[in-house]
Amino acid sequence: xxxxxxxxxxxxxxxxxxxxxxxxxxxxxxxxxxxxxxxxxxxxxxxxxxxxxxxxxxxxxxxxxxxxxxxxxxxxxxxxxxxxxxxxxxxxxxxxxxxxxxxxxxxxxxxxxxxxxxxxxxxxxxxxxxxxxxxxxxxxxxxxxxxxxxxxxxxxxxxxxxxxxxxxxxxxxxxxxxxxxxxxxxxxxxxxxxxxxxxxxxxxxxxxxxxxxxxxxxxxxxxxxxxxxxxxxxxxxxxxxxxxxxxxxxxxxxxxxxxxxxxxxxxxxxxxxxxxxxxxxxxxxxxxxxxxxxxxxxxxxxxxxxxxxxxxxxxxxxxxxxxxxxxxxxxxxxxxxxxxxxxxxxxxxxxxxxxxxxxxxxxxxxxxxxxxxxxxxxxxxxxxxxxxxxxxxxxxxxxxxxxxxxxxxxxxxxxxxxxxxxxxxxxxxxxxxxxxxxxxxxxxxxxxxxxxxxxxxxxxxxxxxxxxxxxxxxxxxxxxxxxxxxxxxxxxxxxxxxxxxxxxxxxxxxxxxxxxxxxxxxxxxxxxxxxxxxxxxxxxxxxxxxxxxxxxxxxxxxxxxxxxxxxxxxxxxxxxxxxxxxxxxxxxxxxxxxxxxxxxxxxxxxxxxxxxxxxxxxxx
Length: 620
Description:
Elements: E1 2-8, H1 16-26, E2 34-39, E3 43-49, E4 62-63, E5 69-77, H2 80-89, H3 100-111, E6 121-129, E7 134-139, E8 148-151, E9 157-160, H4 163-168, H5 178-187, E10 201-202, E11 207-212, E12 215-220, H6 234-253, E13 259-262, H7 267-279, E14 285-290, H8 304-314, E15 318-323, H9 327-339, H10 348-358, E16 363-365, H11 378-382, H12 392-403, H13 415-421, H14 430-433, H15 436-442, H16 447-456, H17 463-488, E17 493-495, H18 501-509, H19 523-529, H20 535-539, H21 549-554, H22 558-564, H23 567-573, H24 578-589, H25 596-612
Helix pairs in contact: 2-3, 5-15, 6-7, 6-19, 9-10, 9-25, 10-17, 12-16, 16-17, 23-24
């Protein structure tokens, strides 16, 4: 719903008023409807508003009655009505009509940091407590809404919904982190709040941080708990889950403006669109289709027949966006500019469909998060045996024994799984792919160690819980970061009903037999939404959302790719060995291999370097 920014300086920034205005202006696209500021001797808070709930009285920064507690907040609290009643019963007096933001103000007065675990929603918020002279920043359970932090010399810090806001303060110098760059090319993501901007970090999901003049502290208010003791029959469970899903949709359809839906043709978006349309017939569907002329075997990624069938069965209005084959060349820079640094997959299509929805609406429902807790990534579970005699930590440690040549390590159930995450450049190819100078600067980042740490962080002895946990804490936050920035670049709010707290809590408690058997995924989810979707959607195997880039790269985009990645540019960047990049391109163009993921990463990285002056900056 907006963008937030702030400077905590404790009297050390006399020009804080001008700086916070510059920060807010840099993220005006997140909230073009209104802006607001609160500046004191200690702190400056800035806000840009996309008006969706309580249009008349929901402006920020917002305070309590005596102006001792102030908040700036990005997101939506879907259970704010229930919390408001609880707070009113405790004696709190509300000034707004039905603003979810004001629940944070009075909730902080009543519960302090216990507030965050009561919130069902997506949020990144900053609360300034004047009496305590403390700033508390918190982020929702899963990382749906972002907030970046950079600590300043001394006792201060800057924060904002996007990295660009931190640099707009003039208080943070732009530097680059080679370790995070290597992480991107070996995991196609940045984990644990790391960014390729040195000194800038993304607050971790499910956490809060407290800053005072005497120091800082942090806490985790939520972490996934795997308590799989509930094993009813499939019919009963699907009925229960269907009711939970409809309740989540009702909560997330609540807005003072129209709400639309993405419809890719997969079961997640189809179920959301169908369920939402039942509740609110005004909901309209938006779909992408791709130009398939001269497209090869990857033409199957186009799901137009499925999205059209869903729309026909629902009798719902549907807008179809045709993505041309040269869309990447025309929109890569804008896409990378929106996401600020490369993460995850072929995001330019998401950029384009968000742009189209934003022409008609301010809010859209997305199926993001529909696989992580439903057992949807069946391929991951298929390569990880559930039965293992050793403890989870012992299994993780087998990676190190494998490196030492221990043949017992071949029994490691996570061996294939680790390899599946270590893409697009595998650990054994790092020396061939990157220059020695870059690797020295990267400081020995080890993707397999990072994957092992992620596996070992799960509080469960079940290997499939470990796989789910890695998805929840690494893959999902990356997807959500893209979802947020690519929509908010167009002043569009994306809501993710499949990450409703009640829905996730239910799924984390059911027996694995209701989720996946290793060959079939999303068993419970499919049965629960079967009444909502056509039978072809119910039976359709999982497909990722994306364009037929493998063919497009070999066709209309080939010459453009060659222009973006010439030997001279690769050499000047100093990151990759030019002969490695040449080999990757040739193998892909000649159809000897499918290197679409790595080529996408290389193109995104090149665009990022030019836009931010990294690794040699713009080339003329």
